[in-house]
Description:
five-stranded antiparallel sheet; Immunoglobulin-like; 296 residues
Amino acid sequence: MKKALLILAFAAFSCSVFAQDWYDINFDNPYYLDHVFADTLSNPDCSWQVGQPDKTWFTEALSPPNALLTDLSNPISPGDTSRFYLWHLRTEFAPWHLFLLEFWYQMDGDSTDFGMVEISPDNGENWINALTQDEEYEMEWVGDKPTLIGSQHEWAHFYLDMTMWASDWNTFPIPMTADTIWFRFTYITDQNGTPNDGWMIDDFHLEDWWEGISEIKANDLIEVYPNPASERLFIKTRQDFTSAALQIFSSEGRRVLIDPNFSGNDIDLHNFAEGIYYLRYSADDKYAIKPFVVKH
């Protein structure tokens, strides 16, 4: 229930924005790889590499064939600090932005090996630690807050909502003064010589919403049926729209579908797992949120 409420809270808050930009990086499309680079300046032996995993625990990417991990085939070295950067150019230099950072990961290390995720709103002059300064900067976790310590041999979800931090940037100790947001990922190992796989990351998703035309919540804007649904979910609108923006979230907090130019009246559910979902439909200056159940 808590996760479901988080989804609804996010969907409701997003009514105050209109424009959006996002991109996904699954390390198979070279177009986006220039957004990610390893830091070989501070550590010439930086172990972050992109490719097909071939290690003891890391054997397959979440979206094969490629992932980003600390060395594709060799154990991570003891006493190592390896770092990479991910950058995002703000689409509009608006008064405030709403940022979301999402990715999936696995870890294999000792209890004192750990990862860090930091964010810089001012071109690297200052860094905000997402795990230790999340409350100070009013960041919210969609789902469970990760620890990034030790081992995690199943794919885990990192989903950080920086809505409040980005929207109130003038009031925080580190103002958002740059047109580029930097994310810094660091993996640090202890001096123990135990051969471990390290950290593996896949399927980055970044969003950047910026201030625009306010939307009005109008849940009678659409109807969805049947509910429960098995093969297709149909959407009946109160009036005709040329196009709309559509998003669907699972009850675990993962967005499973996004279409900023939705023009149909139904959704194929064959690839949806059974469970509860939340659909957000927006058109013109109105939006609606509808829960539905998939049962095959």
